[in-house]
Specification:
InterPro entries: Leprecan_dom (IPR056585), Oxoglu/Fe-dep_dioxygenase_dom (IPR005123), P3H (IPR039575), Pro_4_hyd_alph (IPR006620), Pro_4_hyd_alph_FE2OG_OXY (IPR044862), TPR-like_helical_dom_sf (IPR011990). This is procollagen-proline 3-dioxygenase. With about 700 residues, the chain is α+β, with helices and mostly antiparallel strands. The protein is built from 24 helices and 15 strands. The longest helix is centred in the N-terminal third of the chain and has 32 residues. It is elongated. It starts with 9 loop residues before the first helix and ends in a 9-residue tail after the last helix. Bound molecules: 2-acetamido-2-deoxy-beta-D-glucopyranose (2 copies).
Length: about 700
């Protein structure tokens, strides 16, 4: 609350002969909503639920009454001191002062001294975000007033759909017996939203009569919201510190204050166009109404209204050629409608808004203020050149800030890592893409060595020509082969256990980090080594693995990715777990949809996991390995349980059995692994290993190596 000696008002108050002493103190004015709100919160934290509920209800009531008074005073003073000011008008300051005096007088009669209801912008924002409803729903809940709790909760939720706690609370209400779910109402959303959305849906199904009714309602309500929003701009600005104000001239303060009011009013065009709970406003909200309306009226052959609404649209965009053409058509078609005019209230709104913009632009040229023009229709010639440049620069800055905020929001969406050890080294933003991450520390050095030993076994080393390049040898080991190997030797190789567990570890990281909405299964695991062929590297220009996407067929020319067979469309996420770095080349890289523009590169090293979604947003390839041998575990994950890797389960059973019979072999690794990934406690299968292995022989390796 402001003190009566509020400096910003001080000069005005003196000018208007405001004398604090003479206000009748006993008059029962509206209680300031911020005081009521803070009393409500105080009671809430004391656990006085009914008191808290009452204060909060009163706060909301006071808030809405205050708005009503301001709106009606605004209308009254508009009539008394019409505001048509031009810059040349020497009486500008006079008009501003007169208008202020009128408003202040009007409000003082109904609300008390003007400082009583001056509220910090923080509290205003909380009311705009509907915070009081969140306290209120909890208070109702404690008092057992379930229907009221539900309505308050719903009202808060509509404006805060991402709010985790309210979603949880609403979930609780859902399960409480006797709560009438369909009673949930939204007490605050301005009525124009419902009308607008219904109007647009009717329009889309060519139900023009209905569309017209709803869109006209929406328009009427939207203008009322606009008036209310604009009326609230006066007297709600942040206070400056006294020290700051004392340095300035009275007229400077007034000018500054007035520019703030104008900016606030301008921002209302955005305010009414943003549906509660939505981030972005509907572009060109008011003009859109007229755009839809004129076609709808023409469809129902209401010529007068069609011409009228089209002319009104043209007030915003007088140089819209197609609209001008339409106008000629309408005039020919509906000959009798020569007399139709654009709507006067809209014309008045446009003129007033342009007047405000002119003043703001003038101030921008002379004072150091910033401004975001909410309207797309402001005519170019109304904007001074200097201001244009500044607006452009400011827009650029805002966009950068928004990107930054988006990035932070995306980061906030990231889930925690499921266990200690790994850490995120590069996020999507640093990788210049989306749904990408690089983590380090997923395997320790000795774990990498153990798995690499697998790659040196006869089954693993193979060393045939790479299917992708004549300059490299290629060897791969699938889960199936790894287990067969184990079976043949009848021992639980620590490397096999690790190979198995590394996949599970990666699965858990991906599931948790990307907060996948459904559980992920490993669908395929493969240990792949690529060895540079000595003497065959000279002048090499090809890749170790060409650019591709994992679950769709990349069409670089069309800049599309077709998610259809033969692509592995069940794949949802992909990962590469690197095992070594003692080779040259072989970096993993991501590209744009064009398969050419490299957006990020990842250098392999032991224990580094590169994980990403498998779709067209993440085309990737591998640079040529020009010396040495590059080994990594490739993993694909799926939400579809029928595509879960069957060999994985069998391998788990077999290994567990063998580890029981020959503990010394698996001990070191198994101990460390089971601590870290707890989901590996499959029931012990009593099947003999012979039987197991022979049954595996029937499992055909149907999947291509990638
Ligand atoms: C069109 O409007 C009528 C009411 O006039 C309604 O009964 C009908 O369902 C609407 N059609 C569609 C497809 O919305
Ligand atoms: C992302 O792009 C920037 C600029 O092109 C580049 O410097 C950076 O290395 C890229 N990030 C990665 C991980 O490659």
């Amino acid at each position: 609350m402001a003190s009566p000696a509020d400096w910003r008002f001080f000069p005005l108050l003196l000018l208007f002969g405001y004398v604090p002493c003479c206000i009748p103190a006993e008059k029962s004015w509206l209680q300031p909503f911020d005081l009521l709100y803070s009393a409500g919160i105080h009671a809430f934290f004391q656990g006085s639920w009914s008191q808290s509920r009452d204060y909060l209800q009163q706060a909301l009531h006071s808030y809405s009454l205050l708005k009503k008074v301001k709106v009606s005073c605004q209308a009254q003073c508009q009539r008394e001191t019409p505001f048509h000011v031009s810059l040349k008008d020497l009486g500008f300051m006079d008009v501003v002062l007169q208008r202020s005096e009128c408003l202040e007088h009007c409000e003082r009669l109904q609300l008390g001294p003007p400082t009583r209801h001056k509220v910090s912008s923080l509290v205003h924002k909380e009311f705009q975000r509907r915070e009081p409803y969140n306290f209120l729903q909890a208070a109702y809940f404690k008092l057992g007033q379930m229907d009221a709790a539900l309505t308050a909760a719903h009202t808060f939720f509509v404006a805060n759909p991402q709010h985790a706690q309210i979603r949880e609370d609403l979930g609780k209400y859902r399960n409480i017996q006797g709560v009438r779910w369909d009673n949930a109402r939204d007490l605050e959303t301005p009525p124009h939203w419902e009308a607008f959305e219904e109007g647009v849906s009717h329009y889309n199904v060519q139900n023009y009569t209905q569309a017209i009714l709803r869109l006209e309602t929406s328009l009427k309500e939207a203008f009322m919201s606009l008036d209310e929003c604009r009326a609230l701009c006066e007297g709600t600005q942040e206070e400056k510190s006294h020290a700051e104000e004392i340095q300035r001239q009275v007229y400077e303060i007034i000018a500054d204050w007035y520019v703030e009011v104008l900016k606030c009013r301008q921002a209302c065009a955005i305010e009414i166009a943003r549906k509660p709970g939505q981030k972005l406003p509907v572009h060109d909200f008011i003009p859109t109404h007229f755009h839809l309306l004129h076609s709808a009226y023409a469809e129902v052959s209401d010529g007068a209204a069609a011409v009228e609404t089209l002319l009104t649209y043209l007030l915003f965009y007088p140089r819209d050629d197609s609209a001008q053409e339409k106008l000629q058509q309408y005039r020919q078609r509906f000959r009798e409608e020569e007399g139709a005019r654009a709507r006067e209230n809209v014309n008045a709104y446009i003129q007033q808004s342009l007047g405000e913009k002119r003043l703001i632009f003038y101030a921008m040229e002379n004072l150091d203020i910033s401004f975001e023009d909410p309207d797309a229709w402001t005519p170019e010639e109304n904007i001074p050149e200097v201001v244009k440049n500044r607006l452009r620069a400011e827009k650029q800055k805002r966009m950068e800030a928004e990107q930054e905020a988006e990035r932070t929001a995306e980061e906030a969406q990231r889930g925690p890592l499921p266990f200690e050890g790994p850490r995120v080294t590069l996020d999507s933003h640093q990788l210049n893409g989306s749904q990408r991450v690089v983590l380090d520390g997923v395997l320790t050095w000795s774990e990498c060595q153990e798995i690499l030993r697998l790659a040196r076994t006869p089954a693993g080393s193979g060393g045939r020509r790479s299917p992708h390049t004549p300059h490299e040898l290629y060897s791969s080991l699938s889960m199936l082969k790894a287990v067969q190997l184990t079976g043949e030797r009848a021992l639980a190789t620590p490397g096999v256990r690790l190979f198995l567990d590394a996949g599970e570890r990666s699965r858990r990281i991906v599931e948790s980090y990307f907060r996948t909405d459904a559980p992920l299964h490993v669908s395929f695991t493969q240990l792949v080594c690529r060895t540079a062929l000595e003497g065959k590297q000279e002048g090499r220009v090809d890749l170790s693995h060409p650019v591709h996407a994992d679950n769709c067929i990349l069409d670089p020319e069309g800049r599309e990715c077709w998610k259809e067979p033969p692509a592995y469309i069940h794949r949802d996420y992909s990962a590469v777990l690197f095992l070594n770095d003692n080779f040259e080349g072989g970096d993993l890289f991501f590209t744009d949809l064009d398969a050419i523009t490299v957006t990020a590169e990842v250098r392999p090293t032991c224990g580094r996991l590169a994980a990403f979604s498998s779709g067209g947003e993440n085309p990737h390839g591998i640079h040529a390995v020009t010396s040495g041998r590059r080994c990594a575990i490739a993993l694909w994950f799926t939400h579809s349980s029928e595509h879960a890797e069957k060999e994985r389960k069998e391998a788990e059973q077999l290994l567990t059995q063998m580890e029981v019979t020959s503990p010394q072999d698996g001990e070191t690794v198994e101990g460390s692994m089971t601590r870290r990934s707890s989901t590996l406690s499959e029931s012990k299968n009593p099947l003999g290993k012979k039987q197991r292995v022979s049954s595996m022989e029937h499992v055909r390796l149907t999947r291509e190596e990638l």
